[in-house]
Amino acid sequence: MKKRNLEKEIEILIRARYPILFIESFEENRVEESLSKIASARGKKLFCWSCERGIYEYGTPLHSRKAIDEKTKDVSAALQQVVDIVEPSLFVFKDIHPYMTDPGLVRKLRELAHYLKTSFKTVVLISPQLRIPVELEKDITHLVYDTPDIQDLQELLNKIIKEVHEKANLKITLDDAIREKLLDAALGLTLNEAENVFAKALVMDTKLGAEDIPVIMAEKEQIIRKSGILEFYSANETFAGIGGLEAMKEWLKKRQLAFSQKAKEFGLPAPKGILLIGVQGCGKSLTAKAVSGLWKLPLLRLDVGKLFSSYIGSTEENMRRAIRLAESIAPAILWIDEIEKSFAGVQSSAFSDAGTAARVFGSFITWLQEKTAPVFVIATANSVEQLPPELLRKGRFDEIFFVDLPMEIERKQIFVIHLQKRKRNPADFDLIKLCKESEGFSGAEIEQCIISALFDVFARKAPLTTDNILESLKETMPLSVLMKEKIEELRGWAKGRARNASYKEEIAVVYEQERNIEL
Known about the structure:
Belongs to the AAA ATPase family. Highly divergent. The protein is of the alpha/beta class. 47% of the residues lie in helices and 13% in strands.
């Protein structure tokens, strides 16, 4: 829920005499500012509590004599103070969640909730972690305070630019396009994190511009790594590093600007995602990394196996946390590799794990269908037998692409890419022969053949030649032979069900030939 809507919602709940609100947020200052406005508008006082300061009136500076109340440092004594103060007030308790395991405190909160309904007082609990005992579920209302939106970040950026100009006499001018890119990159950061990273960019080069976007992305990478649920991948791949798959590349390039403000004003919705089904080693995972580089968006990898926990309810909570984290730094790309393995066994979940896998999968596909945050999901799969049918339903993904073994012209591109990567000139090799001899090879198998040939010539201290690669190709048994039946079955399934990632008609490969002249 957006900040301004949430402020209104909180005010309504306070006026309706909801006794205890639990606001889930890392940003105590932002929440306190909102509550201060509400308290002022309703003619109420705002008191805060922390285990270090006890109860104090909002706005009391830390160095003031009244900043610390030793008597109310104990949370139970502080809750009693809520009863003793008779004037209409809001009471903010910070980080109370570790105390929620105390039966005495739980009992006190239940009795306090009953009392507060007949008073003009409300207790607000602020914590970054939701922890509500089952006894209090009916007495506490849970709210999530989202990270700053574009307008909040815009106000912060304007404030920083103004302060820099006044204090350092440094004039910073940003055109609309650069400003939008900076603000989009900062989405998902707290105001404190955004302020820190803008200041860091200014310190580094005394200006703000498009070149500072990687600095902001590095800050987001820290957030992801600290979570322990998602993995952050650096965008170091490009479409130029993918051989073939031109139909899919074109589809993705058309959606490159879909997350911009102009696209929203034009009426375009943010794209939801794609499902890539196909043969192993043909560029599905590489595509996810390349899209991140093309769109200049953070790439997050979700390992579903990491979500599962032995504690009851923890697995479902981990999935919710992963989704919230991805949405908090949106626009972003969420990559789920080999999704069929991640959700294998969903059908038998009721018998194998008391339904945990089924509930996690249900949460995920519901989010896929209904999500409004600009999180583009790229899911890959090597097999369709294990894919739950619900995942393939229209509306979950924008498109389902089938990635087949590379055609001849695509294999030529793959050879060129991997020879150039290893500092070899493709013109020195017989690409026509290599393409013909590598029929049925995947891109990954072609790469490994080149690497194998390089090892051989390095040991002999000889240059790499076409014959070395051909020898390596002959020694390799490709997947298309080992799993011929499976691949044919996959192709049969994809026909009419999925869009081909390559153009269907193989483009003719034109080779230079010597002209025979009769003399």
